[in-house]
Structures are given as structure tokens and as C-alpha cells.
């Protein structure tokens, strides 16, 4: 008989036999993958007291078999060795285990053949690995808060508010700064106040630069609103515009030569004020403070004037 | 045309605005004006100023409490109302208002007794209705439920109750019905959006929210909800950006809703700062405790996580899941089958429930349940059903890989294991040992050997060596088996390892003779054998050299 044909015939039943769910059936037709013998008792790993599952029911490879059967198999195999080899090979590429029968027909000296027996003499352990569920930890849950249950205080005047209906019952994001508002209210208050304004402080200005900036901005704004202090002159004063008129040219000429008097002038303060006011055409009658106020107002006007800031006096 | 003119006006409005500002500043804010723009801080300042100047009247205290309450400062409101109740001529409505303050402060007993001192009113009924829910008093709850009338506030209160009791669809029905009759009540859309969020319909929630956010871009609650939807739909980054934008607009003294924002920033930053922020929010934000537990479980602080959940009686699926996860981890860590059994129960309960059986968390529960019962084939059915959502999720791949390997499908198992990115998992011995087995089963023993070489010398690396030695032997990969047994023998000179090494070395010889292993592998095993002082080793060495001599003699002849 042609050995090739024999192989073909033998192949088919083996292929089918794999499908059989009964493990024993599969085992009996599948020659001796001894390495997948379940070594249920052998468990050398003792790390941290983890107990490995020891039941042999877990189908790690389809070629499981039991020790007592093995002996019979080996005798059978010897008879059918020629044909079994290739079939066994097909099975083993599926399960992947080592099959000594594959090497039965190697042309070796009896000495080496004797050595080969050592391969099967050692039975490798089937180490059961711990199979541990890594639980699916849920994702973090964001909070969206509770829905308005209309458990809320009513307006003292009994009027209905629309809070929670047309608009969510939450404060607007733009809240007045209580300290600024308080100062504002004080500024505008007609009557005198019992208590002085509380002094606000920012505990950690470096961390709260935003707070600090808005505070400065608010206070600036507040001061801008404050009306400028009015001085009611007891006498009529010339208005600033008139005082800003140019001096006569000969006066300017002589000023160039003698210069304006400075603080070294040998006179007292009152006299000095009188002199300066005289030069600037500011009348000094009775209250010098008023005259000085006019003088400084005039100075301010020059200082803030666009024209004179850019003016470079001829030297 | 109209549009552009409008635009011109707004762009040129800087000047007029400045003028307008000055004008407005001339006129001091009024209480009504401040309340209408919900500037409660302003209102409180004004009222306090009036008090200090003696222009206050009896109403001032009531207004002050009203403004404080709506500003979220329930403590100040409570104090105001408490003071009022001490006066003989106190208005009877004050009692219900005081009850509301207690309620918001979580002082439910005080709330109840305050509410009962006041006259019957719809507010009082609503308050007692919700108090009954808090105390779990079903009969009282039903009584007050029946007293609710068909008016806006009562219906909305009922809807809020439905929301609290996770009856989101019932709540949505109420909001829909009320919205139809009151088209201007945009807040109701936000409430519906909140329900949809809870139902995991994040895109619907987003749609419901759109109009309100457009009208009130600075709303804390609406923006937060939008951010939460973004978190679920896209990423924590998108969510954080949403909140950040709002935070920049906030006045520095803004306090309302700050806890929820602080809480959610931790969530959006995937737990960053959880340990600093969340403990302080437990009892204020209901989610804080669960999230803190999640943080611990995610970071393998099993006992801390379990401690938070131990006494919690789960009511919603998420709580069941969390508890089951904690029980699993504790059971695994302390080898307690009792915990694992309870975990199985919870997992099965959620996984087989009508509401969750078709959700991803529900499927995960079934996987966990079957996995714990070691029913890997059944677990695989569920694993496959959600694989598409988790192709690059480490936890999923780890479980998938293990189940596949248990079923002997090592190629797919290896593929799953190799997709895992987490360094923590990759350094886990469980991972290393499974991957090593997959490599060997898939005929790549050298990769398994590499895994061993990368490990530090520990009890675990010794175990891995045993695994490699024996699995390679089983698979006929004798060279690596021989190397592994040789190392084992050197670490622990026990006869078993010599037997393994001997068999493996002869196995290599067999493979070389069969032409399945290159001849130079013999050099390797000769070195290995020379290390062992055994007469058998001598014998084998002799046989090998004889065979080598013989083949060399033979080969030129051929």
C-alpha cells in the first residue's frame, strides 16, 4: 500500500475526532502530548500566598490526558508509529505540544536513542497561572447639582419673583464689591454716619492679584465720581483762562534777564506769596489761601495743558 | 442693513457707554434694581448700609434674609429669621422661611419643627414633602404628595422629587407639560437637560441647554452642566475649558456653587487633587464620596476605598458597581471568598437588571460576575459584545487576554496583552507571567526569555523562570527550557531541575539531529552541561561529541 494514501485515510478521522467535545475521546486518538498532563498537585509558587486554581477542568490545551492512559498509548503508538507521526504532527501544530513520536524514526545510534528516553522521563509541570479579574472601576462622576425644588424663602412684599422659572435661581456672576458699594453709599449719603467705613484688606495679594486689581480699579472709579472739592472764594477771582494770557513782551524780556524770584529772596513766606501772586496777576486780599488756590489751579491748568507739555522754553 | 447698523452702534458705544456709566453712577443702586439683576451682594450691602444709617425699617431684616438665602448664604438667612421669631409680633410666614434655611443647611429635624410652627401654606407642604423624603417616611411623603396642587411651584417641586428619586422620565414629563404652557420659563429647559444628563443622553441634554446658555452665558449651573456633558461626550479637557472661561468672569467674592466647581475640576482633571479637595466636600456634594472611593480604587488604595463604601447601602446601579468592585479588590487582596461572593451577587444583580443589561457598565458587570465564577467561555461572550468600545482600554484588554489564554487562544490573548499601555499593569507579575506563557505557546520563547531578563531577581522572577522552563519543555522548545532549568539549578540545586535540564539538553540534541535546531545550539548546551558535576552530564557530553564527530566524518563523504 502506498504510505501516502494511508496517511490520507488516517487523517480524516483524526480531524473529526478533534471536534468531539468529550475530552477522553480526543485524548485517546491524540497520541501522547505528555507535556500537557495536568500536574494538579504540583505548585511550587508560593508568592504572597496566592492560591492557584487547581482544578484540571480548565481546558488549557485540547491534548489533555491522564497518566494511567499514557502507558497504553505508548504501546499503541509503537505499532502505528509510521502513520502516527504525521498525524500527530498536525494535531500538535494545533495544540503545539512536544511529541516524542515525531522523532522516533531519527537515524541515530542506539546510545543516543537511549538518551532520548530522558526527554520523556522528565514530566514538566503544568503551572496554573493565577487568573485575576481586574475590576472595571467606573469613571469619575461629575456633579450637576440638584434641581430647584421650590423650597425657598418668599419675598417680604409678597410679590412673586421669577426665580427658578424664567431664570435659574442663582446669583448673577457680576456681584457688586460690597466695600466699594459701601464707600459709594457713604459718599452720597446726606447725613453723617455713626460708624466709620470698615477698612477692607486682601489677605494674600500675591495670590489674589485679580482681586487687588479690581479693587484698585473700583476705588479709582469711585474717586473719579467724587465731585472736585469746590472752594468758594470770598472775593471775585479772575478766571484761569484770563490768567493764562501771555505776558507783555517787554516783561518777558526783562524776566529773561533777572529771572523769577526764588525761595532765597530775603522775605517771609507771606511776602513771598504776595510777590508771586502779584507777578501772576492774582489779587491778594485778606485770605492768602484763596489766592494760593487760584495759583495752584493755574499751575495745574498749565501742567495738564497739551500745548505747554510739548513747549520747550527758549534758553 | 439693520444688523450692520446695530453693530455700528455697539462698536461705537464706548463713548456713550462711558457717559452712560457716569450717569448711572450718579444714581445710586436701588434694592429692587439690585434684586432684579440678582446682585445679592449689592442688595445685602445696601440693606446693611441702611441699617447702619438708621434708615432701616421692619422689612429690612426680611429683605436681608431673602437676599442672603438666594445668594446661597443660608447661615446668615437662618440667623436673621431666627432673630425675627424671637419677637412676639413675628410674621407667621417667617417660620416656613426659617424651615427652608434649615432644610438647605441639612438640619432636617429643625426644619421640620420650624415648618410645623407656621401656618399651613403651599411652601410648608412642599418643605414637609421633601423632608419626608429625606427621612424616608413613606406615609408622610404620600400625604404631602396628595396635598400638592396643580400650580407651578408645587408641580416643579414634585418634578424635583422625581429627579431625586431617579425617576427622570417622570420629571421630564412634568417639565415638558409646564413648558408648553409657559414658553418664557427657560429655566425648565435646564431642569430637563439635567434629567437627560442623568439618563446618559448627553447630546440631548446639550440641546435642551442651548437656548438658556445663549441667553445667560454666565449662568453657573447651566455652564457647569454643559461642562459635565462635554466631559462625558468628549474629554475632561473640553469640560475644564468650559468651566475656566466662566471662572474668569466671576467676581472674586462669588461664593455660590463654588463647591460644585471645585469638585468638578478634580473630576475633569481625572482625579488630580482628589485627596486635597474631595474629603472636604463629603456631605456637601453627594458625588464627592463616590469619587473619592473611585480615586482610591483606581490607585490601588483598596482598603481606603472600601472603607468609604463599606457602610453604604447601595441604591443606584453605580453604587452597586462601586461596592462590587471594592469587594472584589478586597477579596482578592485578603483572599476572602466571602467578599468575592458578595461581589458576584452585586455584579449579577446589576448585570442582569432590565435597566442595565444592555449598557456597557451592565455588560462589564456580567463579565466580572462570570470571570469571578471562572466561567471564561461565557465571559468571553460578553467581552466580545463590548470589545469595540474598549480596543485600547487596559483593564479590558487585561481581562480579555486572560480569558482568551484560559480558553487556550493564545494568539488573541497575546495581541490583547500587548495593547496594554499602563506601566503599572505591565510591571505586574500577573501580566508578565501571562504574556510569557502566550509567547511560549505562540512559539516565541525568546520573547518570554526577554521578559525574564528584564525582571529583577525576586521570588516572582524565580516563578517566571519555572514557568518558562516547564512551558518551553511542554512545547518542545528545549533550548530555552535548558537555559531556564540551568538557571534554576544554579539558584536552587535540587534534583528536579537537573532532571529538567538533562531532558531539555537531550531535547536540543534531538532537535539538532532532526534538523529543527541549528547545530551551534549544541555549543550552548555543552556549556550548560559542563556546569553540572554529574556522571550523567559526562555521559551526555560524550554522546554529543561522538555524534558531532560522526556527523562531521559522514558529511564530507556525502
Automatic annotation (TrEMBL), chain A:
- Cite the residue spans of the region called Disordered: 1-103
**Residue ranges, compositional bias (Acidic residues):** 16-25, 66-86
Naturally occurring in which organism (per UniProt): Amphimedon queenslandica
- Organism phylogeny: Eukaryota, Metazoa, Porifera, Demospongiae, Heteroscleromorpha
Which keywords does this chain's UniProt record carry? Cell projection, Cilium, Cytoplasm, Cytoskeleton
Q: Where in the cell is it found?
A: Cytoplasm, Cytoskeleton, Cilium basal body
Q: Which family does it belong to?
A: Belongs to the IFT46 family.
Output this protein's name.
Answer: Intraflagellar transport protein 46 homolog
Q: Which residues fall in a compositionally biased region of kind Polar residues?
A: 29-39
Name the Pfam families on file.
Answer: IFT46_B_C
Q: Name one GO cellular component term.
A: intraciliary transport particle B
> Which GO terms of type biological process are on file?
cilium assembly; intraciliary transport
From TrEMBL, chain B:
SUPFAM superfamilies reported for this sequence: TPR-like (SSF48452)
- According to the lineage, what is the superkingdom? Eukaryota
InterPro entries attached to this UniProt entry: TPR-like_helical_dom_sf, TPR_rpt, TTC26
Give an example GO molecular function: intraciliary transport particle B binding
Q: Which residues form a coiled coil?
A: none
Pfam families for the chain: TPR_8
Q: Tell me which Gene3D superfamilies the record gives.
A: Tetratricopeptide repeat domain
Q: Any one Gene Ontology biological process term?
A: intraciliary anterograde transport
- Location of the protein in the cell: Cell projection, Cilium
A GO CC term assigned to this protein in UniProt = ciliary base
Give UniProt keywords alphabetically: Cell projection, Repeat, TPR repeat
Q: Does the keyword Repeat apply?
A: yes
Q: Which family does the record assign?
A: Belongs to the IFT56 family.
Q: Write down what this protein is called.
A: Intraflagellar transport protein 56
Species per Swiss-Prot/TrEMBL record: Amphimedon queenslandica
Amino acid at each position: 500500500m502506498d504510505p501516502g494514501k494511508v496517511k490520507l485515510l488516517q487523517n480524516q478521522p483524526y480531524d473529526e475526532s478533534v471536534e468531539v467535545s468529550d475530552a477522553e475521546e480526543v485524548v485517546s486518538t491524540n497520541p501522547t502530548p505528555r507535556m500537557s498532563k495536568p500536574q494538579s498537585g504540583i505548585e511550587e509558587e508560593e508568592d504572597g500566598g496566592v492560591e492557584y486554581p487547581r482544578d484540571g477542568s480548565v481546558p488549557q490545551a485540547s491534548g489533555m490526558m491522564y497518566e494511567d492512559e499514557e502507558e497504553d498509548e505508548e504501546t499503541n503508538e509503537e505499532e502505528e508509529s509510521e502513520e502516527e507521526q504525521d498525524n500527530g504532527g498536525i494535531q500538535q501544530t494545533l495544540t503545539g505540544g512536544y511529541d516524542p513520536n515525531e522523532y522516533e524514526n531519527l537515524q541515530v545510534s542506539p546510545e543516543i536513542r537511549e538518551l532520548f528516553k530522558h526527554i520523556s522521563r522528565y514530566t514538566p509541570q503544568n503551572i496554573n497561572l493565577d487568573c485575576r479579574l481586574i475590576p472595571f472601576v467606573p469613571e469619575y462622576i461629575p456633579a450637576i447639582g440638584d434641581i430647584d425644588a421650590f423650597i425657598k424663602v418668599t419675598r417680604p412684599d409678597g410679590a412673586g419673583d421669577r426665580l427658578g422659572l424664567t431664570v435659574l435661581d442663582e446669583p448673577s456672576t457680576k456681584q457688586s464689591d460690597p466695600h466699594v458699594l459701601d464707600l459709594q453709599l457713604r459718599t452720597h449719603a446726606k447725613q453723617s454716619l455713626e460708624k466709620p467705613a470698615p477698612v477692607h484688606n486682601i489677605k494674600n495679594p500675591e495670590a489674589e492679584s485679580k482681586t487687588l486689581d479690581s479693587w484698585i480699579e473700583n476705588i479709582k472709579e469711585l474717586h473719579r465720581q467724587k465731585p472736585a472739592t469746590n472752594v468758594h472764594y470770598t472775593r471775585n477771582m479772575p478766571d484761569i483762562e484770563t490768567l493764562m494770557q501771555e505776558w507783555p513782551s517787554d516783561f518777558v524780556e526783562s524776566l529773561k534777564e533777572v529771572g523769577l524770584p526764588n525761595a532765597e529772596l530775603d522775605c517771609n513766606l507771606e511776602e513771598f506769596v504776595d510777590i508771586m501772586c502779584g507777578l501772576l496777576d492774582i489779587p491778594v486780599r485778606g485770605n492768602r489761601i484763596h489766592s494760593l488756590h487760584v495759583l495752584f489751579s493755574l499751575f495745574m491748568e498749565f501742567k495738564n495743558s497739551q500745548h505747554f507739555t510739548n513747549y520747550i522754553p527758549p534758553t | 442693513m439693520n444688523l450692520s447698523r446695530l453693530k455700528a452702534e455697539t462698536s461705537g458705544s464706548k463713548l456713550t457707554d462711558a457717559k452712560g456709566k457716569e450717569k448711572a453712577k450718579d444714581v445710586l443702586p436701588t434694592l429692587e434694581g439690585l434684586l432684579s439683576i440678582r446682585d445679592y451682594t449689592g442688595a445685602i450691602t445696601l440693606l446693611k448700609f441702611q441699617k447702619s444709617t438708621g434708615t432701616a425699617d421692619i422689612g429690612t431684616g426680611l429683605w436681608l434674609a431673602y437676599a442672603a438665602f438666594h445668594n446661597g448664604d443660608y447661615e446668615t438667612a437662618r440667623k436673621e429669621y431666627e432673630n425675627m421669631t424671637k419677637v412676639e409680633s413675628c410674621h407667621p410666614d417667617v417660620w416656613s422661611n426659617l424651615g427652608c434655611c434649615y432644610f438647605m443647611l441639612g438640619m432636617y429635624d429643625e426644619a421640620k419643627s420650624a415648618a410645623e410652627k407656621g401656618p399651613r401654606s403651599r411652601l410648608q407642604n412642599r418643605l414637609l414633602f421633601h423632608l419626608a423624603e429625606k427621612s424616608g417616611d413613606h406615609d408622610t411623603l404620600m400625604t404631602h404628595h396628595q396635598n400638592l396642587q396643580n400650580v407651578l411651584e408645587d408641580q416643579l417641586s414634585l418634578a424635583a422629587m422625581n429627579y431625586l428619586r431617579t425617576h427622570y422620565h417622570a420629571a421630564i414629563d412634568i417639565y415638558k407639560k409646564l413648558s408648553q404652557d409657559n414658553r418664557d420659563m427657560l429655566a425648565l429647559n435646564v431642569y430637563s437637560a439635567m434629567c437627560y444628563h442623568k439618563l446618559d443622553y448627553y447630546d440631548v441634554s446639550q440641546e435642551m441647554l442651548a437656548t438658556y446658555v445663549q441667553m445667560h452665558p454666565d449662568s453657573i449651573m447651566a455652564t457647569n452642566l454643559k461642562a459635565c456633558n462635554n466631559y462625558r461626550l468628549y474629554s475632561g479637557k473640553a469640560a475644564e475649558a468650559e468651566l475656566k472661561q466662566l471662572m474668569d468672569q466671576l467676581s472674586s467674592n462669588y461664593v455660590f456653587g463654588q463647591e460644585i466647581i471645585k469638585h468638578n475640576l478634580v473630576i475633569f482633571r481625572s482625579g488630580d487633587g482628589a485627596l486635597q479637595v474631595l474629603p472636604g466636600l463629603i456631605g456637601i456634594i453627594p458625588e464627592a464620596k463616590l469619587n473619592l472611593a473611585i480615586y482610591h480604587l483606581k490607585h490601588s488604595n483598596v482598603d481606603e476605598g472600601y472603607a468609604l463604601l463599606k457602610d453604604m447601602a447601595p441604591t443606584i446601579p453605580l453604587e452597586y458597581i462601586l461596592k462590587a468592585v471594592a469587594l472584589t479588590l478586597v477579596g482578592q487582596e485578603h483572599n476572602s471568598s466571602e467578599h468575592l461572593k458578595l461581589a458576584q451577587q452585586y455584579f449579577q444583580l446589576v448585570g442582569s437588571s432590565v435597566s442595565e443589561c444592555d449598557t456597557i457598565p451592565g455588560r462589564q458587570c456580567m463579565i466580572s460576575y462570570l470571570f469571578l465564577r471562572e466561567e471564561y467561555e461565557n465571559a468571553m461572550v460578553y467581552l466580545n459584545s463590548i470589545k469595540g468600545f474598549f480596543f485600547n482600554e487596559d483593564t479590558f484588554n487585561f481581562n480579555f487576554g486572560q480569558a482568551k489564554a484560559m480558553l487556550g487562544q493564545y494568539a488573541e490573548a497575546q495581541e490583547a496583552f500587548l495593547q496594554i499601555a499602563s506601566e503599572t499593569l505591565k510591571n505586574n507579575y500577573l501580566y508578565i507571567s501571562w504574556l510569557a506563557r502566550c509567547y511560549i505557546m505562540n512559539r516565541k520563547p525568546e520573547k518570554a526569555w526577554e521578559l525574564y531578563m528584564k525582571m529583577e531577581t525576586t521570588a516572582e522572577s524565580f516563578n517566571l523562570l519555572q514557568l518558562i522552563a516547564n512551558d518551553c519543555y511542554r512545547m518542545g522548545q528545549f533550548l530555552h527550557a535548558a537555559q531556564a532549568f540551568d538557571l534554576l539549578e544554579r539558584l536552587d540545586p535540587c534534583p528536579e531541575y537537573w532532571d529538567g535540564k538533562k531532558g531539555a539538553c537531550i531535547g536540543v540534541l534531538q532537535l539538532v539531529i532532526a534538523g529543527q535546531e541549528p547545530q551551534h545550539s549544541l555549543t550552548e548546551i555543552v556549556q550548560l552541561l559542563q556546569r553540572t558535576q554529574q556522571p550523567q552530564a559526562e555521559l551526555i557530553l560524550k554522546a554529543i561529541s561522538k555524534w558531532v564527530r560522526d556527523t562531521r566524518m559522514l558529511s564530507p563523504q556525502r
